[in-house]
């Protein structure tokens, strides 16, 4: 019997979809990711199930949307021993190892991974004591801000510049830990206990390019006079979309200096170049161990995007493309020719995809759909939809190029048509062209647990 294919799952944090060479950015340098993407299936309309770190990551692990798996806010986590894709692959015969960020706050820090290497293990104190002042499980950015854990976005931008952040140091440990694990699994020349015959799922999760906007000095200097502000810097006319999560809008030249914005952008670009080099180190370690990476399944993605000052806002949480759309490709040249797929897909779909690619039985009750037919060039039965949720209150449904948003706190709705308005500058919710489509979006929203109500 042939061994199941090995898997290398590369994941960054907060990597905006349009800041990579393989997505057409002319400034950023990502030669390694570009090299992988050249032989991969690239999904040009991939979306996060939630534009916030923890819900997004737990939804990917669970193959479910936030409301399905119960992780809708920052600080929540999956119940212990949940049926994650890592656990499912172990049940299918895989050795699973995760180096770097998984972002669990619950008591189960493994969640199906047999090995955690240089991980971000952190259990919320609420699991051990009551009444603790440290609000590690606040469900929104303002709660973290009030607790003193998080700065507002303006201060974060003003701190941007060259340096060696704590995140950079953690990423270095994750990469070195992954390289050590590769040696032990494939070589182990001292004890001769290597197990290369066991199929491996190796995950490497880096913290960068997530803020702080601090980067290696020579790379920061390279990008400082090359990055350009996004053209649309005017706040969007909406109570949630029109401001940063923890302060008002940051308009260049009005609320914040343009040079400071460029400094933050330069550091962000520099950190993307850094992760490109770090992922290449892992790839080279596998090659040095004698592995043919053309026989591996290689996935690259991130958890969500980063607004980078577009619409005068920063970070994520919004359903603008810069925040909710993500880079995603799957490389498996042994079976699938390189191509671009423009159908709407979701990171939650990776669970079912991994199961089909590895011939592992798929658990029930998933929101995940296998991307394998799209990889094979067959989109005849594909529902061209992607879903994203945030905070138990906000919902995005995208069908084709039309993106509908519902904000249940005030009953407001927003609708963009990316075919006619790719910059997402006009709310078309009252446009006659979409009048017949609205009831269908509302019906789908209600099926997802989000009830439309008339705005007072």
Automatic annotation (TrEMBL):
<keyword id="KW-0378">Hydrolase</keyword>
<dbReference type="GO" id="GO:0008484">
    <property type="term" value="F:sulfuric ester hydrolase activity"/>
</dbReference>
<dbReference type="GO" id="GO:0046872">
    <property type="term" value="F:metal ion binding"/>
</dbReference>
<dbReference type="Pfam" id="PF00884">
    <property type="entry name" value="Sulfatase"/>
</dbReference>
<dbReference type="GO" id="GO:0005737">
    <property type="term" value="C:cytoplasm"/>
</dbReference>
<protein>
    <submittedName>
        <fullName>Sulfatase-like hydrolase/transferase</fullName>
    </submittedName>
</protein>
<feature type="domain" description="Sulfatase N-terminal">
    <location>
        <begin position="5"/>
        <end position="358"/>
    </location>
</feature>
<keyword id="KW-0479">Metal-binding</keyword>
<dbReference type="InterPro" id="IPR000917">
    <property type="entry name" value="Sulfatase_N"/>
</dbReference>
<dbReference type="InterPro" id="IPR017850">
    <property type="entry name" value="Alkaline_phosphatase_core_sf"/>
</dbReference>
